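input
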Amino acid sequence: MADQEKNNVAVYFNRYKDKITFEHIDDTVIMTGGNWFRYGLSNDYSKAYYQYVMDGGHEKIEVFEKLVHEYDQELLEYTELAQKYQKLVFSTNDISMVDPSGGPYISLGDNLKIFWPKGKYQDLIVESIKMAAPTKDTDEDDKKSVVIFKIK
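output
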């Protein structure tokens, strides 16, 4: 880690001892490593919210986005509002989080400065997340995830 300031690279070992590398280049950070990972897609609430308002709903969209996922622990089912409008919530193609098995979990709005504990890399706010295809010279048995974070 001694040359992180010079070469823009940070190395992180997750709880399974997988080596995850972060490279800062201009307005991106490229994360390489981890054989297994999950990712999540953002939700599009526009159709559900439109119908909710047309049905007389008056809550702001920020509140609606929570209500549409509300689960009643006593009845052990989703609330009436959630049941009515959930089917109108769709996933977008925009990735909102990535989580290599063993970590680190990274989502939109996170600051990647935690991988550079000091120095000039202190404002690396994740603005968007894209997956990159492995290169052709990647060994089939050693495929690593490649994630590109656009930063603010």
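quick obs: The chain has two domains: 4-40+94-151, 46-88.
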